[in-house]
Amino acid sequence: MPQAVQYKRILLKLSGEALKGDSEYGIDPAVLSDLASQIVRIHQMGVSVAIVVGGGNIFRGIKGVSIGMDRATSDYMGMLATVINGLALADAIEKQGIDTRVMSAIEMRQIAEPYIRRRATRHLEKGRVIIFVAGTGSPYFTTDTAASLRAAEIDADAVFKATKVGGVYDKDPTTNQDAKRFSTISYMELLQKQLHVMDYAAVSLCMEKKVPIVVLDITKPESLFNVVSGKNEGTVVK
User: Fold this and answer.
1) Which burial class, exposed, middle or buried, applies to 129 when counting CB atoms under 10 A from its CB (0-12, 13-18, 19+)?
2) I want to staple 74 with a disulfide (CB 3.0 to 4.6 A). Which of 4, 53, 69, 89 is the partner?
3) Average pLDDT over residues 16-22
């Protein structure tokens, strides 16, 4: 029997950097396998899981701009990087016995399904893990915004923002030992304090659609499990 869970359907936002481990770039196989194990564990608890993955471990659009590239071209390159990460994550999850579907905002039928909202919802109803790639399909929008958008479209109970710290703090916890973690914080307070969890557009969309944002430390093996089980971990923005 599935365990009692606080969230029945989540949108997990994974940065590309989360896949590289201690390397400067690329995908760390051990990290990839660990992430897949965490996702499979909560899926087996009865949580319906969709994922938006970034591409910063391969190419960041803003980096292309910094070396003189056209912004739109650079952003499209970043979207293609998310496809590579999405395929790798799908493979790692399927190796652990869970069916996946990679859905792309940019059409590339040989390797991913085109994103169609009703089809995505149907995949979730059939117990598949969905990985959304290529962001929104448009330049100038971050994968954070794509995560908020997809969460609203699939009626997710929350956006899980995976980070390397244990939640939202009043100051940088990596340099301030007295940093205080918020167990909950409002959307407006998050924006007013300029606590850079997600970009303004992403937070604003979640606020409009009343989709909570759960900020958690994905590097802790128990973190996803603890949050969906209702334990006091991470920070809930609502």
Assistant:
1) buried
2) 69
3) 89
CATH code linked to domain 9-237: 3.40.1160.10
Q: In what order do the strands lie in the sheet with 158-163?
A: 113-114, 100-104, 129-133, 48-53, 9-14, 158-163, 213-217, 235-237, 184-185
**Cβ–Cβ under 8 Å, residues 160 and 233:** no
8 Å CB contact between 50 and 11: yes
Neighbours of 4 (CB within 10 A): 10
Residue-by-residue DSSP string for 205-222:
HHHHHT--EEEEETTSTT
- How far out from the chain centre does Cα 233 lie? 17
CB atoms within 10 A of CB 138: 15
4 pLDDT higher than 70 = yes
For residue 62, give every residue at least 6 positions away whose Cβ sits within 8 Å of its Cβ, in sequence order, or none. Answer: 74
Q: What is the full DSSP assignment across 170-196?
A: SS-TTT-TTPPEESEE-HHHHHHTT--
pLDDT mean across residues, the chain:
93
- The stretches of the chain forming alpha helices (DSSP H) are 29-44, 61-66, 71-94, 117-125, 143-153, 187-192, 200-209, 223-228
The string of pLDDT tens digits covering residues 105-132 is: 999 999 999 999 999 999 999 999 999 9
- What percentage of the chain carries pLDDT values higher than 70? 98
Check pLDDT > 80 for residue 60.
Answer: no
